[in-house]
Design a protein that fits this description.
transmembrane helix; elongated; membrane; about 55 residues; transmembrane; about 80% helix; mainly alpha
């Protein structure tokens, strides 16, 4: 499910970036980077395996 969320966010941010220009476009791109990094961090953090003793 989180992979679909990542793909949808990428699509939304690409469309918003294409439809705007200037400072608005820069802010959208920075927001996209932050959201994508947060999603990847969350996906990566959920795959850790705890040692079982």
């Amino acid at each position: 499910m989180e992979k679909w969320l990542l793909i949808i966010c990428c699509g939304v941010f690409v469309m918003a970036s294409v439809l705007t220009s200037g400072l608005t476009r820069a802010l959208i791109d920075i927001g996209a980077l932050v959201v994508i990094l947060a999603l990847v961090w969350r996906i990566n953090g959920s795959t850790k395996v705890n040692d079982i003793q």
